[in-house]
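In these records, each integer encodes one residue's backbone shape. Here is one protein:

___
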Amino acid sequence: MASPPANGGRRWSASPWLTLSYAEIVHSPDTYGVVILGDKDRDPLLVAHGVIREQLWRVHGSPRSAAHGMELFRYIETVVDREAERLARIVLDELTKSTGHPIAWEDFPAPLSGASTSEPFAQPPDS
């Protein structure tokens, strides 16, 4: 019997978890890709896509990210933004299923935004 894939059967492979800090962001790729942000326990909380370094700067300076306990990130490099968006949808779906909790898409909702408590995070638009 064949052993399971090293990435746990996922259709993608991300960088190791890195600290969401100035030093790590500066050394992150300046290319398109998917960014997975998580808490100190490496529990994924948000998936975004676009230019990796730009996405990291955006969430690094966001009070919403700090309020949700964002401390770590991973990334997956792609060649073009369209591929990053497609892959981000796959990553979001797989992580949501494997963690059993909702994961935010692109950004966290604003506090007291009136969002439904049963569906606290935005989902990617259907393509």
About this structure: Residues 1-6, 113-120 have pLDDT under 50 and may be disordered.
